[in-house]
């Protein structure tokens, strides 16, 4: 599952250049599954433990922490 990112608008071009994807209907950035090196994105990975676990947290878990109803994903 992809990681959710907290990317400020001023960093959007940098995040996109690294391969992050903008999910317009959810208004959030994600690291897609095919990117294995998360280090370039570490400044945007939220500090909430539900979104940073060994391996990848389920997207629904991260969405629920961000206030998005995971049942609508």
How is this fold's topology laid out?
Blueprint lengths: L2 E3 L6 H7 L2 E3 L4 E4 L27 H7 L8
Antiparallel strand pairs: 1-3, 2-3
Give keywords.
3 strands; 2 helices; 73 residues
Q: Count every beta strand, where a strand is a DSSP E run of 2 or more residues.
A: 3
Q: Give unreliable regions as ranges.
A: 65-73
Counting DSSP H or I runs of 4 or more residues, the number of helices is 2
Largest sheet: 3 strands, antiparallel
Task: Work out the count of structural domains.
Answer: 1
Average residue-wise pLDDT: 75
* Shape, per Cα inertia axes: globular
What is the CA-CA span between the terminal residues?
12 Å
Global Rg:
11 Å
Main-sheet strand order equals: 1-3-2
The succession of helices and strands, N to C, reads: EHEEH
Organism: Pedobacter hartonius
Pfam family, one: DUF5710
Protein name: DUF5710 domain-containing protein
How would you briefly describe this protein structure?
The chain is α+β, with helices and mostly antiparallel strands and 73 residues long.
Describe the structure.
InterPro entries: DUF5710. It comes from Pedobacter hartonius. This is DUF5710 domain-containing protein. It holds the Pfam family DUF5710. There is one protein chain. With about 70 residues, the chain is of the alpha+beta class. The protein has one domain (about 5-70). It is about 20% helix and about 15% strand. The protein contains 2 helices and 3 strands, in the order βαββα. It has helices spanning about 10-20, 60-65, and strands at about 5, 20-25, 30. The protein has a 3-stranded antiparallel beta sheet, covered by helices on one side. Strand 2 and strand 3 (about 30) form a beta hairpin. The chain is globular and about 25 Å long. The two termini are about 10 Å apart.
